[in-house]
Structure formats: structure tokens, C-alpha cells
């Protein structure tokens, strides 16, 4: 089986991330927003590269013991191969190393694939933001995760 590593992306990857955003989201971050976010260290972006370039990425922030998944996407044609799961696993490993204890994210109510992914990782729904997305007034579901240490480290 092919092993693909996640790596931290930087300013040289902004064009690739922008392209993938466009393929994955109806309302998307612009190149300038991504550049600014990275320059200000507002979030980090991890990516998975394939032969043809970037195939998946996740943008996440950590602040005051809380992590937020901002965006996660896998290139159409490369989905259901475990890329998003690998990225999320890496984000949670980073959080454990950095003593980040809680994770949050928002997801469209209709986004069954993403909800399935997050629930598989133990995120549970803790709220609803009514009519949150301006393009279609769709609700956002708010999810939360207690990021526990690995079992071996547990007291
Ligand atoms: C959601 C998304 C990131 C999943 O990426 P992916 O690389 O295909 O996900 P994985 O292969 O790692 O799947 C991991 C698990 O997520 C769930 N999942 C992923 N796609 C799914 C689908 N189409 N239907 C149901 N469950 C799905 C499954 O539990 C899956 O595990 P399994 O394959 O063992 O059943 C991808 O569909 C995507 O880019 N969607 C568009 C962007 C988006 O909506 N992002 C989320 C914003 S909140």
C-alpha cells in the first residue's frame, strides 16, 4: 500500500492550496487570504502530495489550548483513500504534543461525508449556528472534541 506523508505547507504552496480550495468549496478562501493567514501565523496548513501535486490539505489554528479546523479538503478523484483521516490524525498528534486539549469545527448540516469523518474521530455536535452560511443560509453544526493523550500516557 502506498504510504503518503503529511507535511507542513508554506508560502510556496499557496497557489496549490488556492487551486484545491476552488475544487473543494463553493465559497472559498482567496490566494491573498491564505497568504495573509500564513504570514500572520493565524493557522497552519498541512498537506498530502501525490505525483501530480497537492491532493489534500487541512488548515487549523491553535490558540489558548483550543484547536479549530478551519478547512479540510481532498481533491476529487483522490477521495476515500484516507487522506483526510491521515491529516486529521496528524493535527491531533500535534495538538497532543502542544498540550492543546479541545478541538472545534463547523460543518454544513448537509455535508454528510465531512460529518461522518468528524464523528469517526470522536467529534460530537455541541451546537447549531442557524443560517450561518451566506451563500444558501444553511445551518452550521458546531462540533467539539476532547483531545485526550494516547492511552499509554493516560494516568
Ligand atoms: C470530507 C472530505 C475532506 C473527506 O476526504 P477524504 O480524503 O475522502 O476522506 P477519507 O478517505 O480520509 O475518509 C475518512 C472517513 O471519512 C468518512 N467519509 C469520507 N467521505 C465520505 C463519503 N463520501 N460518505 C460518507 N462518509 C465519508 C468515512 O467515515 C471515511 O472512512 P472510510 O472510508 O473508512 O469509510 C472530502 O470529501 C472533501 O474534500 N469534501 C469537500 C470539502 C469539504 O466538504 N470539506 C469539509 C469542510 S467542513
Structural class: alpha+beta
Number of domains: 1
Give me the strand/helix succession: EHHEEEHEHEE
Question: Helicity level, as a percent range?
Answer: 25-40%
Describe the structure.
By secondary structure, the protein is α+β, with helices and mostly antiparallel strands. The protein has a single domain, classed as Aminopeptidase. Helix content is 28%, strand content 36%. A 7-stranded mixed β-sheet has the order 1-2-3-4-5-7-6, sandwiched between helices. It starts with 5 loop residues before the first strand and ends in a 9-residue tail after the last strand. 25% of the residues are buried. The model has no long low-confidence stretch (mean pLDDT 93). It binds coenzyme A. The site of coenzyme A has 21 residues, from β4, α3 and α4.
Short précis:
This protein has 155 residues and is of the alpha+beta class. The protein has 4 helices and 7 strands, in the order βααβββαβαββ. Residues 24-25, 56, 72-74, 79-85, 107, 111-114, 116-117, 120 line the site of coenzyme A.
Give the SSE layout.
Layout: E1 6-8, H1 14-24, H2 31-39, E2 44-50, E3 53-63, E4 66-74, H3 83-97, E5 102-108, H4 112-120, E6 124-133, E7 138-146
Parallel strand pairs: 4-5
Antiparallel strand pairs: 1-2, 2-3, 3-4, 5-7, 6-7
Bound molecules: coenzyme A.
Amino acid at each position: 500500500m502506498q504510504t503518503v506523508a503529511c507535511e507542513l505547507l508554506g508560502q510556496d504552496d499557496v497557489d496549490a492550496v488556492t487551486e484545491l480550495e476552488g475544487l473543494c468549496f463553493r465559497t472559498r478562501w482567496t490566494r491573498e487570504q491564505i497568504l495573509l493567514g500564513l504570514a500572520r501565523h493565524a493557522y497552519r496548513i498541512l498537506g498530502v502530495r501525490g505525483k501530480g501535486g497537492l491532493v489534500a490539505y487541512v488548515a487549523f489554528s491553535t490558540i489558548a489550548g483550543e484547536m479549530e479546523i478551519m478547512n479540510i479538503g481532498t481533491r476529487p478523484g483522490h477521495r476515500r483513500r484516507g487522506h483526510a483521516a491521515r491529516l486529521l490524525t496528524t493535527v491531533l498528534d500535534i495538538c497532543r504534543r502542544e498540550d492543546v486539549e479541545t478541538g472545534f469545527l463547523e460543518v454544513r448540516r448537509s455535508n454528510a461525508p465531512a460529518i461522518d469523518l468528524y464523528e469517526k474521530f470522536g467529534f460530537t455536535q455541541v451546537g447549531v449556528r442557524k443560517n450561518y452560511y451566506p451563500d444558501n443560509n444553511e445551518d452550521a453544526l458546531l462540533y467539539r472534541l476532547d483531545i485526550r493523550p494516547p492511552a499509554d500516557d493516560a494516568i
